[in-house]
Specification:
The structure is a single chain. By secondary structure, this protein is mainly α. The chain has 2 domains: 81 residues; 100 residues, no CATH class. It contains 7 helices and no strands. The radius of gyration is 20 Å and the shape is globular. The two termini are 25 Å apart. The relative contact order is 0.11. The chain binds protoporphyrin IX containing FE. The site of protoporphyrin IX containing FE has 25 residues, from helix 2, helix 3, helix 5 and helix 7.
Length: 200
């Protein structure tokens, strides 16, 4: 193969910072464990309908009983939260927040751009930026339930206990939906090569 063609192909393969890759791996693994152990906790006393309410099937949950579900949840919360904190520091120190996340230009592009590629790219940036506050909401509502006495001011922001539990629970379908849309848009923006570049 002509070496100029092969070098052009190589140049097109996106490359990601090792920190971004590590963040994605740890985030997916810890989120999966938070989610399945959270559903185990839910099964002990469903937010909707109490003990008589709908339960998740056992293949979707980890931990044998409430105690083990809580053990998994509270062990994984450190990895999940510290990973997000480390990535936040990385984004801040390297000033990635200035150009890697959605801006008003992306909002404008979604509204008025005639360029389909630019529009998809703008949606992609908006969606992955919007995931961040949802990941933080899972931490804030989780912490408020974990230490309701020490963090009474945080728990009070959610109104009452049932609302707090409901908000924490709703982060599950929201995170799943965002992960699906994020992957779909990444695929459209950069094909499998972009997705692969984030994990390999
Ligand atoms: C650092 C972050 C987090 C902390 C501190 C935390 C803490 C908690 C606490 C204290 C409970 C209640 C435990 C109990 O009643 O015994 C809980 C329940 C739950 N958590 Fe988390 N959590 C966090 C993140 C997450 C994430 C990321 C997910 C999934 C996206 C999740 C899903 C759930 C679910 C589904 C429940 C059961 C809700 C219920 O029935 O009330 N949590 N979590």
């Amino acid at each position: 193969m002509d070496s100029s063609v092969s070098s052009k192909r190589k140049a097109k393969t996106p490359s990601q910072a090792i920190t971004a890759k590590a963040f994605h791996w740890l985030n997916i693994i810890s989120l999966l464990l938070m989610l399945t152990s959270g559903l185990r906790i839910y099964n002990a006393n469903p937010v909707f309908g109490g003990r008589e309410g709908w339960h998740f099937p056992s293949f979707l949950v980890i931990g044998n009983g409430l105690a083990q579900g809580r053990d998994w949840h509270f062990a994984m919360m450190w990895i999940y939260a510290l990973n997000l904190l480390a990535y936040g520091l990385f984004v801040f120190i390297t000033r990635r927040w200035q150009h890697r996340f959605a801006s008003s230009n992306d909002v404008k592009a979604v509204q008025v751009s005639q360029n389909a590629k630019r529009k998809t790219y703008a949606w992609h940036r908006l969606v992955y930026t919007a995931i961040v506050p949802i990941l933080l909401l899972a931490i804030a509502s989780g912490l408020a339930m974990y230490k309701p006495v020490q963090l009474h001011w945080l728990a009070a922001l959610f109104g009452n206990w049932q609302t707090l539990r409901t908000v924490h629970f709703i982060t599950v379908p929201t995170v799943l939906l965002f992960t699906f849309v994020h992957s779909f848009l990444a695929l459209r923006v950069g094909t499998w090569r972009l997705i692969k570049s984030m994990f390999v």
